Amino acid sequence: MLVKEINTELLNSFTAKETVPVFSSFNWVKLFSEKLLLLGIFEEEDKLIGYCYFFSAKKNNLSYLINTPYTPHCGLHYLNPSKNKSKKTSFDKKVMTHLAEYIEAHKFHFVDFSIPSTYVDTQAFYWKKFSVNTRYTYHLDLSPTEEELYANISSEKRKSLKRAEKDQLSTVLCTDYDEIKKLVTKTFDRKQKKINEALLDKILTKFAEPQNCFAFITKDGTKPIACAFCVYDLYCCYYLFGGYDPQNRHHGAGVSSMWNCILYAKRKGIKTFDFEGSMLPEVEKYFREFGGALIPYYTIQKASLPVKIGLGLIKRKAF
What CATH number labels 143-270? Predict the structure, then answer.
């Protein structure tokens, strides 16, 4: 087995023959071509069986390897040909070992990325002295009826939906992504956080199509006040980002946008809704109240001594 850098043309050829998750798709990956490290996994010298990708660059002469913006993980996807359970596990171990060896050999000063929740074997990174840490998301099974899904959300969320209905807010499928951008930007401004506007534009204008994205927007009359934007594949719908107008708040607006995304994903036959969980307590609580199951996933981290000193990480267990 071999891990080496590949180009997007080879990735395009590979994904054209396979059904891949949305964050592993060629159209998503090519959004990040400027600073992308795209690694191919080869079973033989020229037989590509999988890949993953990272945001890689240098800052102040320090190299880093991290998740790409707006992306929950490194997009790891590969074909495991084994049928025997023991061999299948050994194959997974082999892939992770080669990835760990590649990243270790390139001596990045700062490493911090996640792997998809479908992959759980991180021992190879642990053995290479990386820190392996657990984070969480919520997955909502969409197989129950709409009535059952509604019954499983918290009483607080049901009250919010009823309040939105009582106050005659309207929540509709949105095709004008300029409205989504305005609300998302207002949310980032309110939190005093920087937004990668160029990449947001790429997602909304170059990536977003009816077969991979949708959004719902909640309005008070004609005034947009909240939204939720999702990407999806055949099996899973992911809440990617949302926003609201802080000057026109309504307790039920954001909940209504999210709830309609959930119902829309179910009606499209998608099996799972992924809330793209958060380690922030207030955000975690918001997602939890929609009735999903807590799902762990793993982050791989390492920092050189100068970076640890510079970022104050000496006593932090994460690194």
Answer: 3.40.630.30
